[in-house]
């Protein structure tokens, strides 16, 4: 059978491609595929501990997180994901519970914040993530963001819906920009609107923290003296590939 691999972040650089098809025996699992990728990495990047690298990633099958035990089928799309960098007034319809987007143009923070407000709200809490001019003492020139867009949007919708249910906020806006960003530009905007400030604060913090941990978006930082893929936060337990987990016979 043949599966289609999608590679992101540093894995794309190390294997020299962002996508390729690979042939596997019938009945192969995600773990079997990872063994094959591990061998390829050992050849292409001999100075890297390929086993340690792959233990920190997550794997998706057809845009859903999958464990090493997951059995693959012909035509599956497999993503190898390194840790990611996360009452209306009369006559007016209430806004939808969430507004989610990935964009390639500058984010209109002021416009999105204004659109999220409603007469029933007592608080609107905003996280506006901007590109700063340095990281750990190195001068930053610009950032490049990429995403597994289909899966990222699905994850963003799911965590936004969970925030509405968990914290009782009325509305969530979550917009992330992709492509090249200059110093001072907004990379991600999160707005939580609620009748009470405590729920809005809690939801906004939870949303950005969760986005950074599990939504497949990666950041490449270009400095005055070179460029690197930013270290990501580890995927949560149950998502990250851990150890040598395999399917039981």
Measured distance between first and last alpha carbons: 20 Å
Beta strand count: 14
Radius of gyration: 20 Å
Low-confidence stretches: 86-95, 244-249
Helix count from the secondary structure assignment: 6
Strand order of the largest sheet: 2-1-5-3-4
Query: Structural class of the helices, strands and pairings?
Result: alpha+beta
Beta-strand percent range: 25-35%
Question: Which SSEs are present, and which pair or pack?
Answer:
Layout: E1 2-7, H1 9-15, E2 19-23, H2 30-44, H3 50-55, E3 58-61, E4 64-66, E5 77-81, E6 98-103, H4 109-116, E7 123-130, E8 134-135, E9 138-147, H5 149-167, E10 171-177, E11 179-182, E12 186-194, H6 197-214, E13 217-223, E14 226-229
Parallel strand pairs: 1-5, 6-10
Antiparallel strand pairs: 1-2, 3-4, 3-5, 7-12, 8-9, 9-11, 9-13, 10-12, 13-14
Helix pairs in contact: 5-6
Outline of this structure?
The protein has 6 helices and 14 strands.
Q: What can you tell me about this protein's structure?
A:
The chain is α+β, with helices and mostly antiparallel strands. It folds into two domains: 2-81, Beta-grasp domain (Ubiquitin-like (UB roll), Roll); 98-229, Molybdopterin biosynthesis MoaE subunit (Aldehyde Oxidoreductase, domain 3), CATH 3.90.1170. 29% of the residues lie in helices and 32% in strands. The protein contains six helices and 14 strands. The protein has helices at residues 9-15, 30-44, 50-55, 109-116, 149-167, 197-214, and strands at residues 2-7, 19-23, 58-61, 64-66, 77-81, 98-103, 123-130, 134-135, 138-147, 171-177, 179-182, 186-194, 217-223, 226-229. A five-stranded mixed sheet has the order 2-1-5-3-4. Strands 8, 9, 11, 13 and 14 form a five-stranded antiparallel sheet that branches. A four-stranded mixed sheet has the order 6-10-12-7, sandwiched between helices. A hairpin with a 2-residue loop joins strand 3 (58-61) and strand 4 (64-66). Helix 5 (149-167) runs antiparallel to helix 6. The longest helix has 19 residues, at 149-167. The protein is globular.
């Amino acid at each position: 059978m043949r599966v289609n691999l999608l590679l992101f972040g540093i894995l794309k650089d190390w294997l020299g491609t962002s996508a390729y098809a690979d042939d596997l025996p019938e009945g192969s699992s995600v773990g079997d595929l990872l063994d094959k990728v591990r061998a390829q990495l050992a050849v292409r990047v001999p100075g890297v501990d390929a086993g340690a690298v792959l233990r920190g990633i997550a794997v998706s099958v057809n845009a859903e997180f999958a464990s090493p035990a997951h059995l693959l089928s012909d035509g599956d799309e497999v993503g190898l994901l390194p840790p990611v960098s996360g009452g209306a007034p009369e006559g007016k319809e209430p806004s939808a519970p969430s507004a989610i987007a990935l964009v390639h143009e500058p984010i209109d923070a002021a416009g999105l914040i204004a659109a999220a407000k409603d007469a029933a709200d007592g608080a609107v809490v905003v996280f506006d993530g901007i590109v700063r001019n340095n990281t750990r003492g190195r001068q930053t020139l610009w950032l490049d963001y990429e995403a597994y867009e289909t899966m990222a949007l699905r994850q963003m919708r799911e965590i936004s819906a969970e925030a509405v249910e968990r914290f009782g906020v009325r509305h969530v806006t979550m917009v992330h920009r992709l492509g090249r960003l200059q110093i001072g530009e907004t990379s991600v905007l999160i707005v939580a609107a609620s009748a009470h400030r405590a729920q809005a604060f809690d939801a906004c913090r939870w949303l950005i923290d969760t986005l950074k941990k599990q939504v497949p978006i990666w950041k490449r930082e270009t400095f005055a003296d070179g460029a690197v893929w930013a270290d990501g936060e580890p995927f949560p337990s149950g998502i990250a590939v851990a150890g040598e987990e395999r399917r039981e016979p």
